[in-house]
Each structure stands twice: as C-alpha cells, then as structure tokens.
Design a protein that fits this description.
Elements lengths: L8 H14 L5 E5 L1 H8 L6 H15 L6 E5 L5 H10 L4 H5 L2 H9 L8 H4 L1 H10 L5 E4 L4 H18 L7 E4 L27 H9 L20 H9 L2 H12 L5 H27 L2 H30 L2
Parallel strand pairs: 1-2, 3-4
C-alpha cells in the first residue's frame, strides 16, 4: 500500500481482510511502498514518514502478524530500485503505455503533472517489487490484473534473454465488496468521503449520521430502495443477514427511517471495528513497536531480495 494518508474501510474490505486470511496458507511479504507514493505525490512528501507508521499500525490492528508475515518498507530495500533499473533496460515502451490504469489516471488526475517517467514506469517498479521475492501469487482486485500480466511478461522476457531466474506469478483475484464513499461517489480520500480505520467512534457516529441516502426518501413516510443507497451497501458488507433483511424490508416499506437505518449501521460497524480500534489504541501508546517491526521486516526482506539480485547479476554477467 502507498502511504499517502490514513487507511479507510475500503482498504479493510478491499485488501486487509484478505491479507490476514492469506497468512494461513502462504509465506507473505507485505510492503509499504513509499517510492510508489512519489509517483503522484512527488511535490508533497512531508507526510510520508508519519503515514508509514500510521499505516503499519492499521495493518497490525487488522491482524497482520509479524510472526507469520514480513512487513517492510520499500525504500529500506534498495535492491527494488536496482531490479527496476535493470528491467527498464529490457522493457519496450509501448508495454507501459498500454497499461489501462496509466491512461485512466492521466485522464482523471488533474491536480498533478503526471508526465513523468516515474508515473509511466510505476507498473515496472511493481514488477520489481513482486519478482524480487520470486512471488508465485499476488492478491489483487480486478483493476490490477493488467499489472500482474505485465509482470508475467517481464519475467518471460528476462528469462528469454538471460536464462530461467524468475517464476511467472499467478493472480490471486480478490473479490472486493461494493463499498462506495459516504456520499455515494467513488470512495476517495481526495473526496473526503471515507471512514478511517483509526476513526474515533464518536466521530464515526457523526459521519454515519450524515451519510447520503436514497434521494427518493424525502420524507420519513416515503419508501426507499436500499440497492441504490450507500447506507444499504455498507449494511451488505458489515451487517449480518438478519439485519440486512430488516433494512431491506424496512426501507422499501418506510417501516424504518433513514436515521434509524444509519444507527443500525453504526452498531454493525462498531461490532466489526471496535476490536480493531482498541488494538490500534494500544499500538499508538507504543509507536516504537511498529517501527521495530518494520525495521526487522525490512532486514528480512533485504536478505531475500539480495539473494535474488545475486542471481540476476550472475545471469546478466554484470
């Protein structure tokens, strides 16, 4: 994950929940990619160091276990940059220009000049991040499948030129629940429509109270449609089946009001996030623990990366 701000509910259901479960079956490397943060935030780096520790505490509170997984900081393992450089020597430019997310973000992001090599080449740095640990699987959402396919192409091209060094990683496709922003738009920190994992429950309750609902419910007696309501989407993800059924029936018949529905959602969020919040508070009392975990993980990652780079240099005769 890029340390560009506080992690929110989208990160939890879109990645962290899956990362936690993967620890049971895989040797996992989880990286805070601070160099990737520079691809779009190269002119505003003042918060990156604080965000690294903040994000790590959220990971730990969510259940990422440093005894079972390696948590580390990308820039503390310089071998990532070396492999990225070597990959850049053999990668055709059109391979990077055709990545769908490159074109999409160039069109969407208007407040930063993205005409830089770093932004064009960030999928190649991703490939280095993956291949330097000889990963055989990468957990991603559907929007990242093209990046894994590029990584597979890079591995094949390198192996063709220099001999078999890298495996071709498979995609572990993560089914991401539908979770819009609190205003119904795409969830984005830039829109201010997220709920942070570290949010104080008192503040969270107010955020939930102010969530956008079905515009057809102008009055308490008007029936609504939970299928087009952000609050309904959140219930689908965080509430149990009985509560979801109550929301569906109550909303469609005007049997419940929007405020009541929102407070039901707040209760569901508290059941899910309350333990995470308490673990997070304990971590905040000892921030040095998170730093130590990242430091030790970076040392472990550096050993694995160094072994791969020795093979790479031998294969390339450099």
């Amino acid at each position: 994950m890029r340390p560009t701000g506080k992690l929110h509910l989208g990160h939890l259901v879109g990645a962290l929940d899956n990362w936690v479960s993967l620890q049971d079956d895989y040797e996992c490397f989880y990286c805070i990619v601070d160099w990737h943060a520079l691809t779009t935030h190269y002119d505003s780096t003042e918060g990156i160091r604080e965000n690294i520790i903040d994000n790590a505490m959220d990971w730990l509170a969510a259940g990422i276990d440093p005894q079972r997984s390696t948590l580390f900081i990308q820039s503390h393992v310089m071998e990532h940059a070396e492999l990225h450089l070597l990959f850049s020597m053999i990668t055709p430019l059109p391979w990077l220009e055709r990545v769908p997310s490159y074109k999409e973000q160039m069109a969407e992001i208007k407040d930063h000049d993205l005409h830089t090599y770093g932004f064009l080449g960030y999928p190649l740095l991703q490939s280095a991040d993956i291949l330097i640990y000889k990963a055989n699987a990468v957990p991603v959402g559907g929007d990242q499948v093209a990046h894994i396919e590029l990584t597979r192409e890079i591995a094949r091209r390198f192996n063709h030129f220099y001999g078999q060094v890298f495996p071709e990683p498979q995609t572990l496709l993560t089914e991401v629940p539908k979770l819009p922003g609190t205003d119904g738009r795409k969830m984005s920190k830039s829109y201010g429509n997220t709920i942070a994992l570290s949010e104080d429950p008192v503040v969270m309750k107010e955020i939930v109270r102010n969530m956008v609902t079905d515009p057809a419910r102008g009055r308490r007696t008007d029936p609504g449609n939970p299928d087009i309501c952000p609050v309904g989407d959140y219930h689908d993800v965080f509430s149990d089946k009985i509560r979801v059924a109550e929301v569906d029936q109550g909303c469609r018949t005007a049997g419940i009001g929007c405020v009541e529905c929102k407070m039901w959602l707040f209760d569901s969020l508290q059941k899910r996030l309350g333990p995470l919040y308490e673990r997070r508070r304990q971590l905040e009392a000892h921030p040095g623990d998170a730093r130590d975990i990242l430091s030790e993980g970076s040392k472990k990652a550096k050993i694995a990366a160094g072994q791969t780079m020795s093979e790479v240099r031998e294969a390339m005769k450099i």
